[in-house]
Amino acid sequence: MPVDPPPEQLSRWKTGFRFIVGIPVLFMLYLIGSVWPLAAVVAWFHIVFTGRNAAGTHNVLSWGLAYQVRATAYLLLLTDSLPPISEQEPVTSA
Fold it and tell me: Which of 8, 59, 73, 84 could form a disulfide with 78 if both were Cys (CB 3.0 to 4.6 A apart)?
């Protein structure tokens, strides 16, 4: 994913409005932050007992962590676009 060059000047109104628009992003971060650690524990037990990771838990973990990184970049004013809910391609079991 290419990174845009930094803007020369940020608008104060746009920056302040971003935190208002960011409330749903924070809510999604709260939901995802409570789901993906559970998926990590399930994945750990699955790896310990079978020796491999299931595609489903891998997809949940990669989706959750990718959304957290995108949302953090948005909230820290590193990007101007809202983080998409799902842009990850799911992994299929081979």
Answer: 73
Task: Give 15-22's long-range contacts (Cβ < 8 A, gap of 24+).
Answer: 15/77, 18/74, 18/75, 18/77, 19/75, 21/82, 22/74, 22/75
pLDDT for residue 94: 46
Structural domain span for residue 68: 22-75
Compute how many other C-beta atoms are within 10 angstroms of the C-beta atom of residue 63: 19
Angle CA(8)–CA(65)–CA(4) in degrees, nearest 5?
20
Prediction pTM value: 0.73
pLDDT tens-digit map of 34-49: 888 888 999 999 999 9
Q: Is residue 84 part of a domain?
A: no
> Is the residue at 5 inside a domain?
no
Write the Ramachandran bin of 77: left for phi over 0, alpha for psi from -120 to 50, otherwise beta. left
Q: Which residue in this structure is represented by tokens 């628009």?
A: 21
